Amino acid sequence: MDGSQEPVLVADRLVRRFGDLTAVDGVSLSIAPGETYGLLGPNGAGKTTTISMICGLLEADAGSVTVQGQPMTTGSTGVKSALGLVPQDVALYPDLSARDNLRFFGKLQGLSGRVLDARIAEVLEVVGLSERAKDRVETYSGGMKRRANIAAGLLHQPQLLVLDEPTVGVDPQSRNAILESIDELGGKGLAVLYTTHYMEEAERLCDRIGIIDEGRLVAEGTRDALVAMVGADTTVTLTATPSEGVDAAAAMATWAQRCRALDGVEDVQATKATLDLVTREGSVLVAAAVMAADDLPLAVTAVEVNEPNLETVFLHLTGKALRD
Amino acid sequence: MAASSTAPAPPRPGRPPVPPTWRQALRIAGNDLRRRVRDRSLLIMSVLAPIVLGMIVGFAFGGGFSFSATIGVADEDGSRVSRQISQALISEVTSDGVDTGSSASGADAPEVGLELEPVEPDGVRELVEDGTVDAVIVLPAGLGDAVQAGSPVTLGVVGHPGRTLSAAIAQAVADSIAAQIAATRLAVAAAVVSGQQSGQPVDPAQVAADARDLASPLQVQPTDVRSTFSVIGYFAPAMAMLFLFFTLGAGARSVISERNEGTLQRVRAAPVTSGAVLLGKTLAVLVQGLLSVFTIWAVTSLAFGVDWGDPLGVAAVLAAVVVSIAGIALLITGLARTENQADGLTTIIALALAVLGGSFFFGGAGAVAALKPFTPNGRALLALTELSAGEATLFDVLPSVLGLLAVGLLTGAVGLVALRRKVAL
């Protein structure tokens, strides 16, 4: 976050309980203008509950939320104009057209007349639905509904856009388009809070990521900082085919021994046809490892680099896979 | 999404002022009504269905739709005049009956069977309450003297709140008797004046006796009774009230359905208070109900020639019953845990009240007749029947209107408190 700018959103030690279940347990986060913050966690981790408190839809049992310096509670009205919500489900009236949906929600935000008409035209253009604006939402494909859902969140030009898993159930093409658009919004000075359980989306979009599990924010930072924090290694898998008539096992053993001598290699595991190198140097070791087999009766046929990612981080921090 | 290169505009530096609660409520109500109009449920469920079903239920009785009432005649006076009136009434009306099937009442007017029988003056009210008779015409003590002296004559009618039509018929018969007594006096006066002018000696007592004889047997004029009956005029509002439970119930349940579909979440994420949401939803429900009953009133009046009676009274009763049923619908929705539960409860309560309130049949007896005034639809139907009998005005049905409003406001208030928690997500 750029420390020179006041954060658009500050959530401070939010707690929410449902009976005996503590759905959110002391979550704190802040987002600066132009920053995209990802809340990454599996289903049931507390992402939607956190968002509901941030948007003033659910009262927090403890903690506070401020948006642009103003407190956000379920009774707030004025401050909600600064916030655009894109709920997880398509929150539009299926029997109305996209234009009529946007007109209604725009009026609730205080927009009217030509300003409203212009904004509707603009957001429909942004999400690529101008041609279908007069059609009922129920006639749209799943991807189109999602895009219309996002348009409704953008309509009143909020300072903070909150997207709750906006790509769930969307085809790859629409998903990519949605991600491109959100990426672009961050560049325009909009603060974005993005929840997802798709690790790739968080890595692609987010400046900072908070990892949430069982209601608690277990780690927060940039993608690289998170990876560094858990000290995860890169695994390079090299596949080779021995020449005919040679002692393949001996050739692989020699190759493994040479790789162990390379700087940065922490461990090498050899099988009959593959070599797994564990390193913190990443893919830079690939060339040296391949060259180490140059004078051996082996032909390197495949290289696979498995760098540490948020999945690795999540596994390391929680002991379970992100999509469990 | 847009492969479009158009970038969204940057956040606005200035924001429009937050609209006041009432304006947000109107927008929510307008959106609800727009959706009802577009999916045609407003037209079908609120207007067409009640009229068509009203006709079907009415004509299900076919030409055989009939109404019968037993009217007692209690002679408290015991004079020669009162005995003569009583005997004439019983023999004339019972032998001829009251036929309302004339052209004056329209093609849908049913047959009415009317029987008058003498009853003891003591315990008249008990006879009515236990259903021995539907209403009683009371010939009060002093009637004979009053007739002889030319004093004003007032006949009493004792009715049952659950059988207003019978009371209306009894009142019509009583009015007819009073009118004929007045006509007799006029005839005597005319004869006396005529005799004096011609110089002929006139014995007023003899003329009066002759006039009474001429006037006997009494001719009951059932004009008001005829206009009271109209199959469509009764069953269209009866069905409208039944459908009000369903349409207004659906309107109230939209709070739950919008919560489930997520649109309520988006509305609440806008600068809209939960109070504005509830006010908007309630307004939509009330407007839908009023549109329904007032359209049915207009259609049955213009297309079927039904006379509903005093317009102010009818408007007040219709508005009050809408408030009452809307309140009950809000209460059911507020107390139900799920949309399906609210739907099921609405159906059960609507049908139960329709049976008890006389929406499927006219009249009724025993417990059903006793409970009818205590159901909102039954109370409204009784008031409408009273108005359509032609004599009652807004003033006469005011207790019913106030009762219906009280039920609506009380149940609606409790329902809104319960719904507030649902709106708060």
3D architecture notes:
The complex is a heterodimer of chains A (324) and B (425). With 324 residues, chain A is an alpha/beta fold. Chain A has two domains: 9-229, P-loop containing nucleotide triphosphate hydrolases (Rossmann fold); 233-307, Alpha-Beta Plaits (2-Layer Sandwich), CATH 3.30.70.100. Helices cover 32% and strands 28% of the residues of chain A. Chain A contains ten helices and 14 strands. In chain A, the strands form three sheets. A six-stranded mixed sheet of chain A has the order 6-7-8-3-9-10, with helices on both faces. Chain A has a four-stranded antiparallel sheet with strand order 2-1-4-5, with helices on one face. In chain A, helix 2 (98-108) crosses helix 3 (113-126) and helix 3 (113-126) crosses helix 4 (142-154). The longest helix of chain A is centred in the middle third of the chain and has 16 residues, at 172-187. The two termini of chain A are 30 Å apart. The mean pLDDT of chain A is 88. By secondary structure, chain B is of the alpha/beta class. Chain B has helices at 21-38, 41-60, 80-96, 124-129, 143-149, 164-198, 204-215, 223-228, 231-261, 263-269, 274-304, 311-335, 339-356, 366-371, 376-388, 394-423; strands spanning 66-75, 111-119, 135-139, 156-158. A four-stranded mixed sheet of chain B has the order 2-1-3-4. The interface between A and B is large, with 59 and 39 residues.
Based on CA inertia axes, which overall geometry of chain A fits? elongated
Structural class estimated from helices and strands of chain A: alpha/beta
| Overall radius of gyration of chain B | 29 Å
- Average pLDDT of chain A: 88
Could you tell me the number of beta strands of chain A?
A: 14
Largest binding interface between chains: A-B, 59 and 39 residues
CA-based shape of chain B: elongated
Strand content of the residues of chain B, in percent?
Answer: 5-15%
Strand arrangement, major sheet of chain A: 6-7-8-3-9-10
Instruction: Give the domain tally of chain A.
Output: 2
CATH topology of the largest domain in chain A: Rossmann fold
Helix content of chain A: 25-40%
Radius of gyration of chain A: 25 Å
Q: What is the end-to-end distance of chain B? A: 30 Å
Helix/strand order of chain A: EEEHEEEHHHEHEHEEHEHEEHEH
Largest sheet of chain B: 4 strands, mixed
Q: What is the spatial order of strands in the main beta sheet of chain B?
A: 2-1-3-4
Q: Stretches of chain A where pLDDT falls below 50 for ≥5 residues?
A: none
